[in-house]
């Protein structure tokens, strides 16, 4: 769930540390200074962690009655509506230029349409707890890709150690030494692929959309709008209209979009402006904890000892990949 816009000095690994999951990511330049909010940033940080942590539970509930593409489409519709309202209040204009919109369409696919859909399909066969933990691997994928795509990024030994530790944590969660017993391989692969989409999108954003001069809000609103169009085209091709609209799953989809994709973006912008991206991106490390607690307490999902132990290892590894050399 990524919403931190990369600056010229940020790497995809650090930018994608807030992805993971399951929310939108803006493709824009750093935000201008904003007035200091009245609410303490720690409270907003906690709220953001809860919103994104519960997103995996909401996906699970939504897919009990609606097809994954329908869940994703609904999520994008509600999320876009929130940002459209915010843009109207602040009198923001949509970006201009065919080139910018073309690049945003690609960003919308990798940062919204693809990962949102993959997580929804994954949770048809894997617990929401596992999906939340897979989401935390995004910084690991980001570091791997940055080695290939960004020649200026030279990880330290500590970051390499974090990379190895993180993937060891993934194997622990999956119980690799037990032959991945009880784990759906396809669903798990989809969840991991979803987390991989975020750093791919961030590298693309950094190469094509830095310095456009548009605000975070305008770029993200346009990006979500394009992702909505993409799902609106794809969904009718692979699904049919529901015969009935179950209320609780529908409310879950609405909350997933309005809160997890709309309101969360606005909260994240405020955090980045106030405390910086390094502190704001630490929300990534709380998401799998909350997702696991919600899945067990509310959905009654069972977990083996390998799940919490592996999750801790994944989070520790992801944190180490964000350690920078002192200049």
Task: Write up this protein.
This protein starts with 11 loop residues before the first helix and ends in a 7-residue tail after the last helix. Helix 2 (about 40-60) packs across helix 5, helix 3 (about 70-90) packs across helix 10 (about 245-275) and helix 6 (about 140-150) crosses helix 8 (about 185-210). The longest helix has 29 residues, at about 245-275. It has 13 helices and no strands. The protein is mainly α and about 325 residues long.
Quickly describe the structure.
This protein is 67% helix and 0% strand. The chain has helices at residues 12-15, 41-62, 68-90, 98-122, 128-135, 138-149, 157-174, 185-208, 216-238, 247-275, 277-280, 287-297, 306-320.
List keywords for this structure.
single chain, 327 residues, mainly alpha, 67% helix, 0% strand, globular, disordered N terminus
What's the structural blueprint in terms of helices and strands?
Elements: H1 12-15, H2 41-62, H3 68-90, H4 98-122, H5 128-135, H6 138-149, H7 157-174, H8 185-208, H9 216-238, H10 247-275, H11 277-280, H12 287-297, H13 306-320
Major sheet characteristics: none
Number of helices: 13
Cα Rg = 18 Å
- The proportion of strand residues reads under 5%
Distance from N terminus to C terminus (CA atoms, Å) equals 29 Å
Average pLDDT level: 82
Helix-strand pattern: HHHHHHHHHHHHH
Number of strands: 0
> pLDDT under 50 segments (min length 5)?
2-34
Mass-distribution shape: globular
Q: Pairing-aware structural class of the strands and helices? A: mainly alpha
Helix content: 55-70%
